[in-house]
Amino acid sequence: MKTFILQPLTTATLVLILTTPISGLVLNGYDFNLKWQPPLLLALTAFFLHLGLMILNRRTTQKKSASSQKTSHHPAWPRLATILLPLLGLILPFLLGKYWLTIAILALIYILLGLGLNIVVGLAGMLDLGFVAFYAVGAYGFALGQEYLGLSFWAAIPLGAVLAATFGVILGFPVLRMHGDYLAIVTLGFGEIIRLVLNNWITFTGGPNGVRVDFPTLFGLEFSRHAKQGGTPLHEFLGIDYSSNHRYLFLYLTLFLVVLATIFLITRLKRMPLGRAWEALREDETACRSLGINHVTVKLSAFALGAMTGGIGGVFFAVSQGFVNPTSFTFHESALILAIVVLGGLGSIPGVISAAIIVTVLPELLRDFSDYRILIFGLAMVGMMIWRPQGLVRTTRPVFQGL
Amino acid sequence: MELAILAQQTLNGLILGATYGLIAIGYTMVYGIIGMINFAHGEIYMVSAYVTAIFLAVLHYFGLANVPLMLLAVLLATMFVTALYGWFLERIAYRPLRGSTRLAPLITAIGLSLILQNYVRLSQGARSQGIPSLLQGSFAITLGNDERLVQITYVQTLIIIVAFLSMAILTVIMHHTSLGRACRATEQDRIMASLLGIDTDRIIATVFVIGAAMAAIAGVLVTLNYGSFDFHIGFVTGIKAFTAAVLGGIGSLPGAMLGGLVLGLSESFFSGFVNADYKDVFAFSLLVLVLIFRPSGFLGHPQVVKV
Asked: In this structure, is residue B301 part of a structural domain?
């Protein structure tokens, strides 16, 4: 009983010492303001958290010894949902206003990015901390292509994908022989290099001022109220009233189809020899190599496919914002995408989708907490790794059941 | 005059390198002992810069005017608090993950660095903070014909002295005390060390504490030198210090110091003679190139994977 008070008390004291300088004494020039509430509050939280964990731990150990272990089979991603959810996704944009439509588009972009990074981190087990580089390559590839070469949106989607995949291969080829932690750092450095070059190469990329992106046309039909130079606006062609929502609806639906295609592709790939090889390499590289799997090409394919998805996400991001500049491609963005993959459970597609939606929609619902967004993601990442490394959504893997 | 610029850039590089080396020690020791990159280490350095300024402000508030005494007190207090941060992070976030997959502690480390950054931002505000310069004045080294060669401020002198002194003390601790012997034993073979009665968990925690304390020394010195900092400084400095650790050979203590100096000097020359805008690009490119072509660095041992 004594330890139940003593240990949490020590934790609380420690937290008090740790937090007093940072949140208790707030700098104000060469002076400070004393705030005694935050450190005390944090210490109190730590006390009860520790106490709660201790009680919980004791409960679970008692339970474990009492009941025998039971393995239950969770139904994997019920069939009904695979039909209903896409339908819901198709109907949804017609019910939303302009504001929520833009958020839904952002959520779809993050789903795409999460799916891309999920191939690299979740399936192939390589920690890529510079995923934002491919996102930037896609976005800037389109923006600059449009500016200098007059590239259209429809051409930019495949070209952005190919460009990003090329970058992925160029980076991946020398790097993939390294072991996990080094790979993480190199990709991080690569992401920063791309951002810094975009920021400093002012004559080509416009530097911090960024590049403007025009909204695409659909078979030559424009989304503006009045078409320029003899074109036909979409609403006149269809004979409906003009609405500024149309362009977002169009973007949403296109993006939605791309996301569906990506999901389909990845679920197929996961069951193919290539996908099995990814997961096998993640589990044990040495064993795989001794069984004759070419680890470089297998890893490279994961890297290139992930980069491709990121590049497509970048093209859509550029279009939806109408403008790109380097501040959208900081390490924070990489960390956010990684948070999506981790929260969703490494390797799980439904997990990534739900996590991406949570990560984009929740901050909009909890506007007051938007400052705490990244803090909460950080806490969630640590908490997930400690208590639920398999993610929010449990996945069942296809297993060989012949034996 | 070229000579004067060269000398000044060398000095700047040495000072930069000394701080990188101090921070790199934390990366290299943690990597050596548990084989993970402590991504949150850069943020530990950032926290120490804040703690420095806060303690200075507190001492100033209580009317302490004796600058050397003030600096010593701040150095010790900051080292203590920052080391406690290092210990705490290891205890709550890394220890529970021991024996899990390789990816887990890395992800946790990124989570921790996000937490620390945003905790400081939310508590202290997003704008950059500053302290007044406490040590003013400088030495000038002149050539024979009375031409000024290089100017060293008192703070820069202090940085060089303190940095090299603390590295020397650390080297002595690691090589001539039982604690150091236990650290090296744990690094070589953790299971064997624990069989021989070394509390390896405690040794690992100690390594985090030492690393954080070294980062705190760097934090105090850099804050005194530049006078301004914000909640972002940990990220870039962290990567560069990691570059220094890799450059010198990760896991090797003298390697970290050497790597720090090499990186500091080359970065300083690059920004002085080539292009200051691209100095971060240069440092990151160096990191990528070293990792690709010589991942064992100057003094490290190539890794052999045994099955």
From this structure: no
Q: Tokens 């202090």 label which residue? A: B158
Q: List, as ranges, residues 344-373 from A with C-beta within 8 Å of B.
A: 346, 371-372
Residue B209 to residue B250: CA distance in whole angstroms: 18
Range of the domain at B122: 2-293
Chain B residues touching residue A185 (CB < 8 angstroms): 37, 239, 242, 246, 287, 291
Residues B287, A189: C-beta atoms closer than 8 Å: yes
pLDDT in tens, B8-21: 889 989 999 999 99
Provide the residue type at B198 as one letter: I
Q: What pLDDT, on a 0 to 100 scale, did the predictor assign at position A225?
A: 65
In a domain, B100, yes or no: yes
| B304 exposure class (CB count in 10 Å sphere: 0-12, 13-18, 19+) | exposed
Q: What sign does the CA torsion over A348, A349, A354, A359 have? A: positive
From chain A residues 152-191, the ones with a CB under 8 A of any chain B CB are 174-175, 178-182, 184-186, 188-190
Q: Are B267 and B282 in contact (CB under 8 A)?
A: yes
Distance, in Å, from the CA atom of B127 to the CA atom of B135, rounded to the nearest integer, reads: 24
| Rounded Cα distance, B220 and B226, in Å | 10
Where residue B179 sits, what CATH number does that domain have? 1.10.3470
Question: How far apart are the C-alpha atoms of B114 and B108, rounded to whole Å?
Answer: 10
Answer whether A200 sits within 8 Å of B57, measured CB to CB: no
* The pLDDT of residue A235: 66
Return the H-helix or E-strand segment holding A265. helix A245-271
| Cβ–Cβ gap A184/B118 under 8 Å | no
Report chain B residues whose CB lies below 8 A from the CB of A377.
111, 114
Beta bridge partners of B141: B150
Domain count, chain B: 1
Q: Nearest-CA neighbor of A228 among A217, A212, A244, A239?
A: A217
Dump pLDDT digits (tens) for B117-163: 999 998 888 888 888 888 787 887 777 666 677 888 888 899 999 99
pLDDT digits 0-9 by tens, B216-265: 999 999 999 888 888 889 988 998 998 899 888 888 888 899 999 999 99
- Determine, yes or no, domain membership for B305: no
What is the pTM for the complete model shown? 0.85
